[in-house]
Design goal:
binds flavin mononucleotide, alpha+beta, 171 residues, 16% strand
Amino acid sequence: MEALKAILTRRSVRRFSDKPVSQENLETILRAAMAAPSATNEQPWHFLVITDRPLICKITEIHQHAAMCYQASAAIIPCINLAEKEYRDFWVEDMSAATQNILLAVRALDMAAVWVGIYPNEGRVNEFRKLFKLPPSVIPFALIPIGHSDVVQKEELDRFKKERIHWHKWE
Ligand SMILES: Cc1cc2nc3c(=O)[nH]c(=O)nc-3n(C[C@H](O)[C@H](O)[C@H](O)COP(=O)(O)O)c2cc1C
């Protein structure tokens, strides 16, 4: 799928079919995640990948806005290990870029996903640390449930707002 089409037709999808996400597609998605830009090209990310359905369902017990996990065939949790990082100023931006790349790669592969926030909610961060046995220095950044879906993502988004564009000066 053409890049611009994937960007403009991407939607948060919270309803998935039973069809599993193939290992090959997961690898493609993770390759896209790791192609994201990062400050000083540090590429600080790790990715927790879950394809075990009962474990994905367990997420609904610790996140009140993650009911879509009952149906998702896979989930990716981009994580950062602050113990590894030398330059800490821009890690949120780095992780956001990787997360967005995942959403776009999923769309390009004609599947569906949604960005579910974890960080900076401390309670959620701690619950995910407990469930997935993350060391204290590792921050789970976001949850991305993924699956095939019959939710149609065809129409291009039009959120263009002329008044938000400031040419040359803020006037
Ligand atoms: C930082 C962040 C946190 C979000 N958290 C949730 C969430 O907890 N649950 C959820 O269903 N969607 C969540 N979303 C998805 C937004 O609701 C969604 O992106 C927004 O409504 C726009 O819709 P669209 O993605 O279809 O364009 C989150 C999105 C972002 C960027």
